[in-house]
Amino acid sequence: MRQAVLVEPKHIEFREVEAPKASDLKEHQVLLNIKRIGICGSEIHSYHGCHPATFYPVVQGHEYSAVVVATGAAVTICKAGDVVTARPQLACGKCKPCQRGEYNICEELRVQAFQANGAAQDFFVVDDDRIAVLPEGMSLDYGAMIEPVAVAAHATMRGGDLKGKNVVVSGAGTIGNLVAQFAKARGAKRVLITDVSDFRLEIARKCGIVDTLNVAKTSLKEGAKRLFGDEDFQAAFEVAGVESSIRSLMECIEKGSTIVVVAVFGKDPSLDMFYLGEHELKVNGTMMYRHEDYLTAIDQVSSGAIRLEPLISNHFPFEQYDEAYKFIDENGATSMKIIIKL
Length: 342
What we know:
Elements: E1 2-8, E2 11-16, E3 29-39, H1 41-47, E4 58-59, E5 63-71, E6 83-86, E7 89-90, H2 96-99, E8 110-111, E9 123-127, E10 131-133, H3 140-144, H4 146-157, E11 166-170, H5 174-185, E12 190-195, H6 198-206, E13 211-214, H7 220-228, E14 235-238, H8 243-252, E15 258-261, H9 273-278, E16 282-285, H10 291-303, E17 312-317, H11 321-331, E18 337-341
Parallel strand pairs: 11-12, 11-14, 12-13, 14-15, 15-16, 17-18
Antiparallel strand pairs: 1-2, 1-4, 3-5, 3-9, 3-18, 5-6, 6-10, 7-8
Helix pairs in contact: 4-5, 4-10
Protein name: Chlorophyll synthesis pathway, bchC
Organism: Bacteroides xylanisolvens CL03T12C04
Cofactor: Zn(2+)
């Protein structure tokens, strides 16, 4: 079978390896035929050698949809022919976070496509406790996007109860867009999404986020005041990964409110910690997701509460994996989610 291996930064190599056999499955394993793979921002960092936790060489792919080929003897969650996706987290199950059920922050966490081989191959074996069955009729493309939707599901949960609150999301890339959509789905009163790209803000509007702000043209302080008036906003999500973004959120959010840091910062920001303390702001981190977030993501996409079609920019065949990255480099300002077809 084929594998797409990131041998080193900017070097993808296609290898032919022996396919796993159904007869070799352990009792709780599932053999998948991979159909779609989404390329995420973290993998773009890996491709450029900018991801500090990527081990080279590594098989690509952690956002995917697949068809079940065979199951181990004890598997009950799925059967041959089902269309599924699966979490890419490999947790130890023994550390304190794992014992609390918080395996997304496992002390020994490995993530497939970064510290362990991913799904960019024709066939892939996964433990059944990471499988999520997709509903009949959900497209393979949407199935491959459940992973980033689950990121948004978990991040918005980290923001506390959003019902009736005004919310600001800074950064309108794929994850920021999905966070904004999920804030709406969780009952936020109004959601303002900001960016410096009119293209990304237009995509947000196509996804139902009607309130948008280009902070390169109008400051967050002015834009938020115009939209929320004296109500202010009570929750914010930092998805841009730049110092000016989180500083603006801190300066403009209502006292005693919560900011969730979703983005990975390339450079640590310098923040006014006295201001943070004096305003009793709560700054929460968020790390990936747990299985319940996958199930919530599937439900919200199925119901139509989360719109994915406007986010899908292009498809590339498996053989053009490298070309897909080059396309992203050349067209990043006018593209969102790129999907690989097997």
